[in-house]
Model the fold of this input.
Amino acid sequence: VENREHDYRDLLALLHPDTGRAFRVGVTGPPGAGKSTLVDGLAALWAGAGARVGVIAVDPTSPFTGGALLGDRVRMGGLSAHPGVYIRSMATRGSTGGVAAATGDVARVLDAFGFDWLLVETVGVGQIEIEIMNICDSVAVVFVPESGDGIQTLKAGLIEIAQLFVVNKADRPGADQLVTELEHVMAERRNSHAWSYPVLTTEAIHRKGIDRLAAELDRHRMFMQSDNRLAERRCQQALAGLENVLRERLHDYLREEPATDRWLATLSQQIATGEVDVHHAAGLIWQRLRGAEPGSAQEE
Ligand SMILES: Nc1nc2c(ncn2[C@@H]2O[C@H](COP(=O)(O)OP(=O)(O)OP(=O)(O)O)[C@@H](O)[C@H]2O)c(=O)[nH]1
Ligand SMILES: [Mg+2]
Done:
């Protein structure tokens, strides 16, 4: 499914009836904030309590197979060998298009497999990360005291998409200051929303604060399951997912056929030299797509 090979669409269609049960938690934040260490701690805690936990690490710079996590694995006697935990690293950066679509589909496979929790770790730096967050029911953003001059420097977009805020590496100076700033931002939000937007401190490396984070995630899960909220969010996710898949298909259609690819190159040249306007060029492509409609409909 991740590689978009063989009959992956047929497979997903078969799995579809078994999806929708896992609660999906996105964990995002700047590089090196301790996301993997937090995810590791959460997975260990939940698995220890008998839950089944799936982890998707998207484009990790410190993959679960090495670095700090290897140390953890040795120390813990193997989280990834824990029968209740499955970890999948996706090195997708640089692949053309469809990263969000592929991640959404991998999440669907794990969901169908029967995990209670799905943890999706991404580095919160770009648009793709925000798109990936669209596949999650709950998003935790991880900050660290050394993030810079407070939250002003942090991506506003990240704050927008999150329901939980974690200040990790609380053992380092500046954590209290950051918590105060985040609390200040959240105060406004709490006024106009039913959710409490908790700001938590953790020392993931010392497994401190993980239980509180897990409890808040549990609380958010229950919050989402009340008043039809989860159903509404899943509906938004479905729309975003549909758009991702359509984008991926359009991308493939334009790039995979050599003749179409050459046509695109010619059009680009004509746009660059001022011969053709970009909207006109897009219109030509749109026309051809519409012409291709009956064929692709039969293919279905
Ligand atoms: N001092 C301190 N270090 C921590 C804490 N949590 C994690 N670290 C360390 O921070 C480093 C990065 O941790 P990771 O969990 O790999 O961070 P990440 O956010 O997953 O990193 P990327 O996936 O590379 O973006 C590791 O050396 C961890 O041991 C903490 O609470 N305090
Ligand atoms: Mg990581």
